[in-house]
Amino acid sequence: MKKLWKRCAAVVTALVMTAGAMGFSGLAGAEQVSAAEDSVTVYISSQEDGAFLHPYGAYEVKADLAESYGYEDDVTDGVSALDVLVRAHELIFGEGNVTDYLTAEDGSVSKFFTEGTYDFGFMVDGEQPHSEETVEYTGMPLSYEGYSVNQAKVGDGARVEFFSYMDSMALDYYPYIYLGGERVNNVEAAANSEIPLNIQGICIGWYGLAVDLSDERLWESVESAQMAWVDAYGNKTDIDGVVTDEDGNVTVTVPDSASVGEQLLLTAYMTEEELSSYATPLIMPVITIQVTDSGEVTGTFERGEAVDDDSQGGGTEKPTDPQVEEATVAVLDNALKEAQEPAFEDEWQVLALARAGAEVPEGYYRQYYDDIAKTLEEYDGKLREGGDLPTDYAKVILALTATGRDVTDVGGYDLTEIMKETYEKKGGTANQVSFALIALNAASGNKNVRMEAFEETLIDKLLSMQNEDGGFSVAGSSERDMSIGSDVDVTAMAVQALTPYRETEKVKTAVDNAVTFLTGAQKENGGYPLVESAAQSIIALTALDMDPATATEDKSDSILDSMMTLYRGDGTFQYGSVEGANDISTEQGTCALVAYQRYLDGDTAFYDMSDVEIQYVDTGAGSQGDSSVQNDKTEQQENGTANAVGTQTGDTFPVELLAVVLVLAALAAGTLIIVKKSL
């Protein structure tokens, strides 16, 4: 259905083109589009799930176009990337018809061409826009502070790319295309000429802002990428047999039929077959081929006009000293609003609400269970059509277990077995191993879970991945290390995973060394630059019965204090210095606050679900997998009255206050809850 919609969108765009609304000729944008003084002409491409969403071309974009639809940007003089994104939506849906299809607030894009997304990315002239300020994140290369889509200014002639990451960890490669050792996005060649290209990929979501992009550890040759021509409507046509080799090399021949003066569009992508074999997704480039009568093949890298840094960036003052208890109520309120109709990919919201014992609408968790069962049935025992990862199943196991569900029989499917099979096919990065282990331990109270041998395998694997400094690496694995050093987030995840197994001396030593690394990585203010790092550390420390609100002697504040400096006061968190609500930061910050509240109340740790009573589905004739089979305990969990923070050990946690907040929010919004998707 998604691909059909994209094809329909391309047809709509084609009709708009014929009406002369886009002003370009040939297969790509033309220089003849002239821009008014308060506008620029830029080349725009937008893509999702391996398909271009509209024709590539040169389009005029007016300054403050986003503001005309009620969006806000921080570019004080000129055109912002958000203005360009709005223009891209106009190309398909027409002028005046954008807000139903694009949701963007404070630089965070949560709906992109009608599709809910929390993995939105963009590039301007082949790089991530950024300031000249640098920041050091533990385990990462020295990096620039990036601009969000509402902060970045775009110059005349710029190439602007919008996309959603296909990989659940945003590990997609962004391709650098080389001709004769030089980076190119435009090639001049005659018909029947051979163009020898080389494609190198960088995990742009992780390393795109690195100051030193010459570091070879950041790069990987892009192997098995299919080359394809792109037509005037954005549709791809594969070039038979033309794929990159193991070094990223490929030779493309200009068609005999190409005419002098014609412009062709070339791209590269990973096929469904490659993705199903766990190839790294590739953000599709657009390379223009200018057909000449010269026998020489030459290339250039075209850029737009430079922009002044003073007119972009913007920002507002960060909130200070928020009350943690009030923030916990607010983030749970936000989680309930964001997951109005809980479904697959709402795992963090469901998990946080369940572990907090928050009141939810009747049947709320049952609705989530039913969607998971439906998804498994739709994809024949998988959660995705292709490219599913062990972490997908781990998160669902955690969410369902927290709500009292038997994860060995979800519509007839055993999620623990599927996770194990996926891990064995894919292998595991450090975070994937950690979450598989966390999920199995969380579900260990389920009498039907028989995964002791797999648990031992995961423990041994994770221990083998520990670095000499006690930390664990970003996306690192024994097979292919993509890391630049130990990472706080991944190390904290490993601590969470290994903590329940500390009775073994080797595990205890590994955990102690990891905690030492986390302590050493703290900044002077006692925390870390990102919510994600602080949140994972808070969950890890509370699992160890350590107070994350206590500052060490040599630090000014605690990890919790530092995380709360990134709290925005409205139930959301921001990503580092990037102003505005960030969905992933908010999800992880929410889980951390719930973990801390459970710690204060003396409850089991966030991922220790020994306090949850599992309700087993009646496996009698005709009842296996029937999500309607309930008992009194499950009904209590549906309504937030079982395993609630504050209901087992007293009334420390203000569940009643949460209910009042929810009712007031519902009255103000005119609805009970509002909507979102999750990471």
TrEMBL record:
Keyword Transmembrane helix applies: yes
Organism: Candidatus Allocopromorpha excrementipullorum
Region span, Disordered: 620-647
Keywords: Membrane, Signal, Transmembrane, Transmembrane helix
Cleavable signal peptide: 1-30
Name the record gives this protein: Terpene cyclase/mutase family protein
Compositional bias per record (Polar residues), positions renumbered to this chain: 624-647
InterPro entries given in the database record: Terpenoid_cyclase/PrenylTrfase
Transmembrane segments: 657-675
SUPFAM superfamilies per record: Terpenoid cyclases/Protein prenyltransferases
